[in-house]
Amino acid sequence: MQQSQLSSGDVIADRRADYAKMLDEGGEPEAAAELMEQALELTPSWAAGWYRLATYREKAGNTAGAADGYRQTVALDPEDIFGAGLKLALLGEAATPDQPPSRYVERLFDDYAGRFETSLVEKLDYSVPQKLAALVASTGRRYMLAVDLGCGTGLLGPEIREAVDALEGYDISQNMLAKAEEKGIYDHLAQADLSLSPKSSGIFSGRRETRADLITAADVLMYLGNLESVFLIAERLAVPGGDFAFSVEDAGEGDGFHLAPSLRYAHTETYVRSLCARHGFDVLKIEKTTIRKDGGKPVSGILFLTRRGK
Question: How far is 215 from 209, CA to CA, in rounded Å?
Answer without folding.
Answer: 15
